């Protein structure tokens, strides 16, 4: 047992106290023991097995538990600018290195940095970051900057705080300063990390050329260090850039490289980011099951490793974009609820624009239309700050919500705005055109929507194809409808989602009705009802039931039609959709007319 002083820290094993600049700070018992063990054996590296056996004697735990303890310890060390002292030795274990000058002692020439004192702004800022108090951290960093207390790593932490507050644009000059400061100090590899972060922020702002510039700058800084964490992050960022340039095969290859680097280094952040995008681009290229498995594993890996809120948000959002594009609503709902809880647990009081957008679309599908509309409008405001590239998608979702509610003028306005923002508003716009009697325009628009190699086009292909089959049948293009249905049904492993299966069933019903095969059409509509029930979409269930009711009237099954109509009417009232109500009223009139004919004939 002993007392260890390092930097501004003091760890006393006898009193089990950890102090920073003379003030005691809180550390979980396992985190305290982890630091104490490494300090006691600072002359050598400790293997994972040694640490596991010492920290959890007689208990079987996974390496993920050790990774979490190490992550929490690094967070504590960060408060004193000493996080670099804790070294992760890939495939072996950990070591605390105090024999070389720490970052707090190697002050880059332009970083200034007066000695930290008890109660100083910089210590308050670091403590706020560790406690995920982002607003407090940003304010304290600003004061520390004015007092010339910042070290270069603090610039990155300040940028993180601003991003967590939904103000990434304000992080850009700080990260640029960090790149410069690391470069002046001769730490080129470390300079690559903020350069990559700058590439990400600019990409998410829709500034692809600037993102590519910072990505190339990072490549220069990394140079030949291909086994470094920075190289893994560079590959991951390259995958995103290739995706933005509609090169999914190259994007997949880079994501695979990022995953391999992270795996080799035993770095859960790089590994999970590479894996999440490997899954994302597998989904684009038709490897649906493998892509979903990659994404789910990536989220579990990253979120069990105490990643920062930005990385966690990337993992969650990536899955949710894919779920929404594929119409995988059950999975989307599970991940959206988990994401909301995770955001609140990481100090993100105001949900990001992407999070609001994901939740809004799920709520719209589930029939909570007013709440969904309010949420997507809030998302539009936030997206303007943190992800303006997604504005077009948010407007598409807004159009879908108005369409479901029967507000056709508002839906058309939103779809046109989505298109103007560079997004494809299909298949919602085509469905609106069907409602407006513009079936030919709907068919042409859907055919155009299948052209291209961008990730939204590739991922939404199943939903667009299924809608196209329905519209092709409605416009009497029987061969095209059969061709599209065959593409969907001969690749069930590519589109196993209930929503795609429901739309395909509706398309087949349209075809069968053209051929007067009414019993088979009724069967397909019943399948559609069942699949939409699996999704949990009362609006789509009601639509399918009303189509079935109209068919039953046609074949003389009035009691069956009344049953379907009654269920659909209850749903229409519950979701408050004037469109569904209008359909219900028309069918009521048809049933009354059919009853009158029956009575008259009698």
UniProtKB/TrEMBL annotation:
Q: Where is the OmpR/PhoB-type domain?
A: 1-98
Which residues does UniProt call coiled coil? 471-524
Molecular function in Gene Ontology: DNA binding
GO BP terms, alphabetized: phosphorelay signal transduction system; regulation of DNA-templated transcription
Regions recorded as binding DNA: 1-98
Q: Does the keyword Cytoplasm apply?
A: no
Q: Which SMART domains match?
A: Trans_reg_C
Record keyword Flavoprotein present: no
Which keywords belong to this entry?
A: Coiled coil, DNA-binding
Query: Which named protein is this?
Result: Transcriptional regulator, CadC
Task: Supply the source organism for this entry.
Answer: Mesorhizobium plurifarium
- Cite the source lineage: Bacteria, Pseudomonadati, Pseudomonadota, Alphaproteobacteria, Hyphomicrobiales
């Amino acid at each position: 047992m002993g007392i260890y002083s390092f930097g501004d820290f003091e760890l006393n094993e006898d009193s089990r106290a950890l102090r920073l600049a003379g003030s005691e700070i809180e550390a979980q018992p396992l985190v305290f023991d982890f630091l104490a063990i490494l300090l006691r054996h600072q002359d050598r590296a400790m293997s994972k097995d040694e640490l596991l056996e010492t920290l959890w004697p007689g208990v079987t735990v996974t390496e993920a538990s050790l990774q979490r303890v190490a992550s929490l310890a690094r967070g504590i060390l960060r408060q004193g600018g000493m996080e670099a002292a804790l070294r992760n030795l890939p495939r072996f274990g950990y070591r605390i290195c105090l024999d070389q000058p720490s970052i707090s002692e190697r002050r880059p020439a332009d970083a200034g940095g007066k000695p930290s004192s008890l109660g100083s702004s910089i210590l308050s800022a670091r403590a706020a970051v560790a406690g995920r108090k982002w607003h407090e951290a940003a304010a304290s960093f600003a004061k520390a900057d004015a007092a010339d207390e910042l070290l270069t790593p603090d610039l990155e932490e300040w940028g993180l705080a601003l991003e967590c507050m939904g103000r990434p644009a304000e992080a850009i000059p700080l990260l640029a300063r960090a790149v410069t400061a690391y470069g002046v100090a001769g730490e080129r590899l470390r300079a690559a990390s903020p350069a990559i972060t700058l590439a990400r922020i600019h990409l998410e702002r829709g500034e692809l050329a600037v993102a590519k510039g910072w990505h190339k700058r990072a490549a220069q800084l990394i140079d030949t260090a291909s086994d470094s964490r920075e190289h893994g992050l560079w590959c991951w960022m390259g995958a995103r850039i290739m995706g933005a340039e509609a090169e999914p095969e190259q994007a997949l290859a880079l994501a695979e490289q990022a995953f391999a680097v992270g795996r080799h280094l035993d770095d859960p952040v790089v590994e999970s980011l590479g894996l999440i995008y490997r899954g994302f681009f597998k989904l684009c290229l038709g490897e649906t099951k493998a892509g979903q498995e990659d994404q789910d594993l990536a989220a579990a890996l990253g979120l069990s490793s105490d990643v920062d809120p930005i990385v966690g948000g990337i993992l969650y959002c990536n899955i949710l974009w894919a779920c929404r594009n594929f119409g995988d609503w059950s999975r989307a709902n599970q991940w959206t609820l988990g994401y909301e809880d995770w955001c609140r647990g990481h100090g993100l009081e105001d949900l990001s624009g992407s999070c609001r957008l994901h939740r809004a679309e799920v709520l719209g599908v589930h029939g909570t239309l007013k709440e969904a509309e309010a949420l997507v409008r809030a998302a539009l405001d936030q997206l303007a700050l943190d992800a303006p590239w997604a504005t077009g998608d948010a407007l598409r979702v807004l159009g879908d919500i108005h369409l479901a509610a029967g507000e056709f003028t508002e839906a058309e306005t939103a779809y046109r705005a989505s298109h103007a923002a560079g997004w494809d508003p299909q298949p919602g716009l085509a469905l609106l055109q069907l409602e407006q009697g513009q079936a030919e325009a709907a068919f042409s628009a859907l055919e155009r929507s299948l052209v291209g190699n961008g990730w939204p086009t590739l991922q939404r292909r199943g939903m667009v194809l299924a809608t196209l089959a329905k519209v092709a049948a409605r416009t009497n293009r029987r061969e095209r409808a059969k061709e599209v249905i065959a593409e969907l049904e001969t690749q069930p492993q590519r589109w196993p989602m209930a929503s795609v299966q429901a739309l395909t069933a509706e398309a087949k019903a349209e075809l069968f009705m053209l051929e007067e095969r009414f019993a088979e059409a009724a069967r397909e509509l019943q399948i559609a009802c069942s699949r939409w029930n699996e999704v949990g979409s009362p609006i789509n269930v009601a639509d399918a039931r009303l189509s079935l009711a109209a068919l039953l009237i046609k074949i003389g099954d009035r009691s069956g039609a009344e049953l379907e109509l009654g269920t659909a009417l209850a749903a229409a009232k519950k979701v408050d959709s004037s469109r569904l109500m209008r359909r219900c009223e028309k069918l009521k009139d048809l049933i009354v007319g059919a009853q009158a004919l029956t009575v008259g004939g009698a």
